[in-house]
Design a protein that fits this description.
The complex is a heterodimer. Chain A is α+β, with helices and mostly antiparallel strands. In chain A, about 25% of the residues lie in helices and about 35% in strands. A 4-stranded antiparallel beta sheet of chain B has the order 8-5-12-9, with no helix packed on it. Chain B is rod-shaped. In chain B, about 20% of the residues are buried. The chains are: A alpha+beta, B alpha+beta.
Amino acid sequence: MTRIILSALLGALAAPAAEPPPLANNTEFRVRLLAPVSTSANQKGDKISAQVLSPPAFAGSIMEGEVRESKSGAKLKGTSTLALAFQTIHLKDETKLDIRSDVKSFINSQGKADVDEEGHIFQKKNNLGKVAAASGLGALIGGIAGGGRGAAIGAGVGAAASLIVVQMAAKAPNITFDSGSELVLDVSPRAKR
Amino acid sequence: MAQCSVCRNELKAGSHFCTFCGTPAQAAPAPVPTAQAAPGITCTVCQAANPAGLKFCNRCGAALSAPASAAGGFTPAKRTPLPLIIALFAIPIAGAAGWFAFQHWQKGRAAEAPVVTTAPPAPAPAPAPAPPPDAQTPFSRPVSTPIVREPEPAPAAPARVPVQRPKLPPPAPAPAPAPVQTAAEEPPAPTPAPETRPEPARAAAPAPPAEPAPARSPVFQPERTYQPAPAAPPQPRYAGPASGIIVWSGQLERGTAVTIDGDRASAGSINGALPGVPVMVEITPSDVAVAEPPGPGNGWKRISVRSRKSRHTVVTIYWRVL
């Protein structure tokens, strides 16, 4: 019995599960969209997927994520915003890796950087203003309800409710990316809870 | 000699204060002979020299302190009760530990006792070794088989039995031709063990036989392990078309997704299916969104589309294998 248990333990130790390749913080990934994304059709919460092109250790893996924000601008004068976030890498050996990602730049399906399919130049921005506003509102409500301590709590809640999201914005009615467009991402492993 | 009125300490001639308790002396005739006093401790108040060992100054009665702590008057040495506290805690703990160890030792002795006690009566019923299948007190010490026939120590024994069981089975297959292979693996085991109780081992517990089987299986495993290895990569190479089209038609409700799973759709009619391997998709019309693309999460077999307008339309999905 003891021998069996020992051999089972040794076997388990000797054959460890395949380790995913190490992922350092702020690793630059280049991925290719596997389905089109546009502010005119997609909405917040839609799923997205992309194939990893580089780094080589992850090449061929599939990333999955979602549309964090999709807003079309006005017809004549408006700004469209699109925010994408990838949360998981499905490695070739069918293991998953939880990640955080920020979009650094786009390359459309014709190979033009920072321009969408229709030629709209877009820029990267974040929603820090929104976060600040939400924090202020939270602090105001918290302050009214519970004084100084309530204000602090409210500010924290407000900030947490409006997470910082890096967006792509263009002064155009829509932002469109066909499948095959490439994204340059800043990827970091996400801490396990 | 004069005496202190409080502590009855003998006062030296000329002392103004008791050198033991500091009480002022009743009579104070002669001045203190400072010259005679040994240069032991100098009073911090009147600077008078006092012989070593005094607690209070002979002249002014101020408390005398040791030379090291001259600044602070009387500073009784603070004795921290830490050792005492430690001792108070340590003694009961040590006692409890000792008691526990003693109990444990006694239990162990009690468990072993049956073997010893049963030994004497055993010789008489020696002829019937079969009945004690349950006893199984095969400790390493009682080598002789007849002793083990006592069934009473059962409660203590069961825990140890399974440990030794695996050793017993090897002798059992002795009659069969198979042992030739097992013997090759474990040559020393078969010879001594069979004498002890080959029969009880089999009759007593049917469960152990299950263990020996896997233990012996390694002999045959190599052949099997070679087989699964090639079977492990059962990743069927995709041999289908490299690209294709899915045509869906029906009513798209505003904001409601239509899911196409395999060759079925949650609404409308469909022609075609995804291949179930990594693909890249395009969709027309362009204002129809891919709400959920095919991916590893859905086995590459599902796609959801959604429109921002309600309309009856035809959606064409082009897929291409990666």
